[in-house]
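User: Reviewer 2 asked us to show a designed sequence for the structure in our supplementary figure. I'm pasting the structure tokens here. Could you produce the per-position amino acids so we can include them in the response letter?
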């Protein structure tokens, strides 16, 4: 029965019995772990009635089970794909829309979904609408973390890393001080949950003043995540000079203290030497 109900590929011609052309495939983006509503917009002239219409969603090219659906006087739960059970809500049809809400989406849900609407005409269900929606999933990368610098001879190296993003996106550096040449490497690693971590290194000539930006550009989410690190070597030099000054002050203090103690000791020794050389005689009775 299921094979008869599910709808196969639609040819590139008007839909039978309707004179309507199938709509072009649309693309939507959902965040991993969240919910998304897949819109199915049919001609407003058609008013949907649960007693006269079949509304169902299926994976394009997969005809063994439903994502979600409603058939008059039919229990469709046994035909629902296992991975979509308890995650779908077929919203009540409104004028011009029969949307599907999909919850807790994952990378595995990145598929092409077909919205099929059939109408009972003289006792036979005929196709009146077929629409395809391509679901792309995405995940925000964590805020980049810049570490370093590590001095390598006449060069210094900085590292930038970020994690749990999807899919692979562009990572780039920018030197805000000048446009000096930078040697950059970028490496993506796929994690167990399917998301990606990225690690990048930057090598440049040693400079007294730096202002670097590490940015991840997420095109699907129209989002740039940036971290800035600046004046590393200048701050290091200042810290070194302050530390050196404090060290010299401490050395001078203890040197002065030692000198005072030494003078006191020498003065005491001189007294006893003088006393030994000039004895004092007391008269005897």
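Assistant: Here is a per-position design you can include in the supplement:
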């Amino acid at each position: 029965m299921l094979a008869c109900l599910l709808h196969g590929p639609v040819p590139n011609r008007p839909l039978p019995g309707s004179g309507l052309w199938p709509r072009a495939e649309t693309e939507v983006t959902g965040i991993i772990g969240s919910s998304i509503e897949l819109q199915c917009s049919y001609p407003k002239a058609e008013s949907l009635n649960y007693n006269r219409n079949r509304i169902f969603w299926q994976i394009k090219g997969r005809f063994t089970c439903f994502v979600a659906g409603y058939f008059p006087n039919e229990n469709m739960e046994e035909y629902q794909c296992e991975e979509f059970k308890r995650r779908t809500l077929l919203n009540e049809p409104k004028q011009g829309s029969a949307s599907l809400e999909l919850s807790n989406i994952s990378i595995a849900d990145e598929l092409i979904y077909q919205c099929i609407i059939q109408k009972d005409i003289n006792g036979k269900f005929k196709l009146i609408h077929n629409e395809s929606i391509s679901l792309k999933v995405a995940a925000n990368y964590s805020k980049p973390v810049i570490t370093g610098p590590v001095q390598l001879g006449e060069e210094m190296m900085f590292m930038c890393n970020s994690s749990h993003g999807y899919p692979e996106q562009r990572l780039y550096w920018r030197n805000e001080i000048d446009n000096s040449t930078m040697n950059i490497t970028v490496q993506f690693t796929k994690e167990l949950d399917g998301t990606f971590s990225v690690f990048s290194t930057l090598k440049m000539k040693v400079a007294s003043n730096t202002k670097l930006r590490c940015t991840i550009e997420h095109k699907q989410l129209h989002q740039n995540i940036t971290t800035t690190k600046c004046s590393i070597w200048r701050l290091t030099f200042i810290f070194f000079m302050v530390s050196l000054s404090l060290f010299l002050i401490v050395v001078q203090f203890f040197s002065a203290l030692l000198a005072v103690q030494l003078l006191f000791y020498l003065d005491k020794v001189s007294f006893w030497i003088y006393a030994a050389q000039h004895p004092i005689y007391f008269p005897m009775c």
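For the response letter, you might also mention the following. Residues 9-21, 280-285 have pLDDT under 50 and may be disordered. Residues 232-277 form the longest helix (46 residues).
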